[in-house]
Amino acid sequence: MPCRIEPRPEAPRPQAPLPDSLTWLEDSLRRLETDGLVRPHRVRRGRQGRLVELNGRELLNFGANDYLGYAGDVRLTRSCSKGSCAEGFGSGASPLVSGHSLAHETLEAAIASLVQTEAALVFPSGFAANTATIPTLVGEGDLIVSDERNHASIIDGCRLSRARLLVYPHRDLTSLVAQLEAAAPARRLLIVTDSLFSMDGTVAPLADLCEIAERFGAMLMVDEAHATGVFGARGSGLVEASGCEADVPIRIGTLSKALGSAGGFVAGPASLIHWLRHAARAWVFSTAHPPGVAAAATTAITLLQEEPFRRRELLEKASHFRHQLAASRPTTHATPVGRTASGDASQIVPVVVGTPEKAVALSEALAAAGFFVPAIRPPSVPRDGSLVRVSLSWHHTEEDLTRLATAITSHLS
Ligand SMILES: Cc1ncc(COP(=O)(O)O)c(C=O)c1O
Q1: Pocket test residue of 133, 195, 256, 346 for ligand 1, highest count of atoms within 8 A of CB
Q2: How many angstroms is it from 184 CA to the middle of ligand 1?
Q3: Is the pLDDT of residue 302 over 50?
Q4: Is the dihedral of CA 95, 101, 104, 105 positive or negative?
Q5: What is the pLDDT of residues 15-28, one digit of tens each?
Q6: pTM for this one?
Q7: Atom 16 of ligand 1, residue of closest alpha carbon
Q8: Domains in the chain: ranges and CATH
Q9: Is the confidence at residue 337, as pLDDT, over 60?
């Protein structure tokens, strides 16, 4: 029997006038409205899976990063309960002090085994893993080169590091090499990329990046947030699927997307992890995430090994869906940028429509037809590249995909 949380009835609170020091907020919010950038506030009720109830409406769920369908899986809930009973719910301190429990130690061993690295380190989120790790690798006098579509947490990590930053156009290796050749000498060099780009569903040219990193003596850091659990024979991600494991020394991943849990990780050589335990500020100065969450994530990694059919079937569905959409959106969905070197199509399928207003209109039309497909607008994507982002999940049926493809096509034609 699924649990339901009943809302506490509350009297509506009257809105007080803003203090003078905060009136600028009204101008900023008005500007968002003018630019079509106001974000909806959604409240979910119940577990999400194939379906999701948002603001009281049940919709077919194409908006979560729950690619393998583990977020609502009761086996994770049970592990979380068991872990919490054994070690308490709160961690009580940073991992450096007393927050690192046996559940975290077990999880880090499971991650290192999945990714096949010497060691791994868990952070409360993938965002924290990136913002904490980059400044431990480079600083003033160093150089970072970063794909223009890298995730916000990579961008913020680069900014925090105070290293010089060069940004190359998305997947454009000619430009990357030209920038490296023209760059003034630096003490250390870091190349950083998402492996599967979260808004575009595009795949980084990893084998070429490895070769460039080797040629220029650069550290290569690859963020597998949306690929962890989905690609590769073991399910560790696109680095594994591309056969590049020996050439990518710094691997980032999340437990929060395909693994249906929460937290982020860095995996790599033991010396890197040892260094991070001293230098990564979000690990040293922030409370460890709850041990029950670590226990649930460890269960998800076990399920990844026991249920490889989920990632295989997800990628088959992605390929099928892209083919269905290709009839109406040939340039967006049939191009190789959304495919791996071995031809797998990624499970993130953007439908680029242009302005933020057009993206919202498509998202709203799809909601009216029973689908939750969020609109993605600046700053997540360029202004003229606003889109609706279709996230496929193992839970979706063939009929779900056909119905969604038909609804998108008929709205756009
Ligand atoms: C590439 C990338 N890295 C990191 C993150 C942050 O991960 P988390 O949600 O676990 O904080 C995301 C989130 O979407 C992402 O897309």
Answers
A1: 256
A2: 31
A3: yes
A4: positive
A5: 889 999 999 999 99
A6: 0.95
A7: 198
A8: 43-68+308-412 (3.90.1150.10), 74-305 (3.40.640.10)
A9: no
